Amino acid sequence: MAGSRLADGAGQVKQAARFATALYADRVGRFYAANMRGNLPAKLAGRPGRADPYPIYEQMREQGTFCRNRFGSFATVEHAVCDQVLRSRRFGPRPELPAYDPAKTEDAEATILSINPPDHTRLRRIATPAFGPKAIGAFEPMVQARIHEIVDTAERLGEFDFVEQIAAPLPIAVITTLLGIPGDHRREFEKYGAVIGGALSGIRGLRHAAALQQADRALNAMFTQLFELRRNEPGDDVISRLVAVEGEQIEPAEMAPMCQLLLIAGFETTVNALGNGMLAFDRHRDQWERLVADPTLAAGATEEVLRFDSSVQRTARISFDDTEIAGQPIRAGQFVQLMLGGANRDPAVFDAPDTFDITRANAASHLSFSSGIHYCLGQPLARLELTTAFGILAERLPRLRPVAAPRYRASTLLRGPRSLQVTCR
């Protein structure tokens, strides 16, 4: 028994050593590519790139339709090319073969976001009714009431962290209600979901890896308990619907990853969009004053916030065949990085793209919700939350403004402030 424990311990030490070595090698490789070879996609991962990626996107645009990342794959900031790749059925988030098997996969993110048809089609069909017009319309009174509660607290505080007090509470309340998570468990789901969401751009170190593993296990255990609860006490929520078709339309092994995705995507990107919007309004006070004067402009403001500083900065697709995009041959099995943040400021689509204008006529042409069959399932809910929030904030907190520089998340995939001290006085 003791020998077995020692062997297990030695194996864990070796595994940790291999992980640390690979992580260090990746950082060295990225640093060398960015600083010695001048590789622009690699520069996005550096501190200046995380603070403001848009000058780097413009340098990429100057190089032409495509540039290479440090692994030799193509990267593009052109809106038309990004949209074409996202809409093409001959590109996907993972290789076309071998076939996806939820019972055998080791990929914890094997969800509607990261799999190909026909499994993508099947899983999306199950989740779609929860985000339809009728379902989202029913959430509007709750969203309005929750925002007013949040603003009541903010008014009493006077000065506070915008992310902690405003940006985070709204979407977590909405998505946990949508999923059917009991109120006394919502803080736990938020905590573990935030850890997993923060790892979408990659693992930063051994401590981060350990926290991620713990969060993943805890979240899966909590979902397993919730599935059992909803089998016995079904409600009008997403998890109850999944349980009702378990074994027929969805495999048991698919349920927890799908719920994880909906939980994380349901609050992580909305939190970032609210924070990015607050910063954009502060740096363009004339646009904030315009919204304060006419809160009905909130829907247009939402689209411009999503375009101007996207919560999701990039995605990638792999080619299933030898093909050609914008005159560039692409081999089967080759990845193309799609820089959505750069595409949203493409001057070929948006006039004066670096100007923040909440009355921009074509702001909704942004790619912040992706495009094609993987177009964001929850975008109607996100738009409802953001539009309602911006409108009420402008109406009730007209003096809202930051009083300190933001602290950004250490991520190149998701962009948004981790903390933002503001005042409403």
Walkthrough of the structure:
The protein is of the alpha+beta class and 425 residues long. It is built from 17 helices and twelve strands. The strands form four sheets. It has a five-stranded mixed beta sheet with strand order 1-2-8-5-3. A hairpin with a 5-residue loop joins strand 1 (67-68) and strand 2. The model is unreliable at 2-17, 19-25 and 99-109 (pLDDT under 50). This is Cytochrome P450.
Molecular shape: globular
Number of strands: 12
From the alpha carbons, calculate the radius of gyration and give it in angstroms: 22 Å
Task: Indicate the CATH topology of the largest domain.
Answer: Cytochrome p450
Helix content: 40-55%
Strand-residue proportion:
5-15%
In whole angstroms, how far apart are the ends? 65 Å
CATH class of the largest domain: Mainly Alpha
CATH superfamily of the largest domain: Cytochrome P450
Give the biggest sheet.
Answer: 5 strands, mixed
Overall pLDDT = 85
* Class derived from helix and strand content: alpha+beta
- Describe the strand arrangement of the main beta sheet, using strand numbers: 1-2-8-5-3
The number of helical elements comes to: 17
Question: Secondary-structure element order, as H and E?
Answer: HHHHEEHEHHEHHHHHHHHEEEEHHEEEE
Uncertain segments are 2-17, 19-25, 99-109
Number of domains: 2
What is the name of the CATH architecture of the largest domain?
Orthogonal Bundle
